[in-house]
Predict the structure of Monooxygenase.
Amino acid sequence: MAYVLQVDFKMDGPFGDEMAEEFSDLAKSINEEEGFMWKIWTENQETNDVGGIYIFKTKETAEKYLDMHSKRLARLGIEDVNAKIFSINSKLTEITKGPII
Amino acid sequence: MAYVLQVDFKMDGPFGDEMAEEFSDLAKSINEEEGFMWKIWTENQETNDVGGIYIFKTKETAEKYLDMHSKRLARLGIEDVNAKIFSINSKLTEITKGPII
């Protein structure tokens, strides 16, 4: 059963196309992480919140990624990270057309 | 451009199949909300966190839904709701196979 990793934190930019350019290599590397299925990249230029909605194949791979990602963000000076890992209620998600098994 | 609404809050259950049974009519009604595209239902039985990852067609419809949903949760006694609305970085999301335009 797949797991959701929900992450957000404050960042002063870049956003939009500039962000895409700066992080495209990172994005490609995320595709190679163990258990990774997909990520939607989130940003709010008004509040300087950025983050992502990830799907991992297992709770363990989500936890492992979050641990690595938190350390990577800390190296960039970002210590205050909101992160939660959830299982998925498949029956309700099926009703509301969520794109996940 | 689509928007992400990320919501979570504490709830003492029900979870899993019981939750699905209790909220299936609610789930069907969410499909009818203006601008709604999909929702993944999230739950963590260890921490009593529940919530959802929603996609709406516009920022305005995401905001309108959140306002209505917050009032509905307040009527159930749930006042402490974490909610954030984000735009999507399409270029990075395409690289990481996020299931959204």
Chain B has a mean pLDDT of 96. The helical segments of chain B are 16-30, 59-75, 90-95. The two ends of chain B are 8 Å apart (CA to CA). Strands of chain B lie at 3-10, 36-44, 49-56, 82-88.
